[in-house]
Every structure is written in C-alpha cells, then in structure tokens.
Amino acid sequence: MVSELVVRTRVLVKTKHCVAFVPYAASSPLHVMALPKAPRRNLVAATDEEQQDLGEFHQRLAELISTAIESPAASIEVL
C-alpha cells in the first residue's frame, strides 16, 4: 500500500483513514484493494471518526465502480 500511495498512479479513492487502489498485477478489470491506513482488530475498535470516514469511502468507491460498469470506455476521475 505504501508504494501505491507514493506513486499514486493506481490509487482510486483516498480518504483520511482508507485507501483503494488497483494492485500491480490485477487479475481482473475491476480488481480493487480497499484497506484502512491504520490496523484495527475490527470495526468496533475503530473510532467514530474512522467509522464515518469508512462510510464515505465506501460510497465514493461504489460510485466509481458503478461508473466503470455502466460506461467501461469512460474516463474515470480518481481520488
């Protein structure tokens, strides 16, 4: 994840607490890795701010994937 954040060429969505990117050797057109920036045992261990951020992160990622499915040839604006 660190190299993706530095290079930023494959980062799709980045928030304060989460990041989604296309892995280097993606195995399918919609292969996406979504990870928290800080380790947590589970969602209960996340702070209220992290949980709120996760909701917004998932919404942005879902919209991006929906756009890619509906218009595969369209240019997708990331981040």
Strand share of the residues? 15-25%
Gyration radius, in Å: 13 Å
CATH fold-level label: HIT family, subunit A
What coarse outline follows from CA principal-axis ratios?
A: globular
Mean pLDDT over the residues: 83
The main pleated sheet reads as: 3 strands, antiparallel
For the record, the CATH architecture stands as 2-Layer Sandwich
The ordered H/E elements are HEEEH
Short structural description:
Helix content is 37%, strand content 15%.
Keywords:
2 helices, 79 residues, alpha+beta, HIT family, subunit A, 3-stranded antiparallel beta sheet, single chain, 3 strands
Write the layout of secondary structure elements.
Blueprint: H1 2-7, E1 11-14, E2 18-21, E3 33-36, H2 48-70
Antiparallel strand pairs: 1-2, 2-3
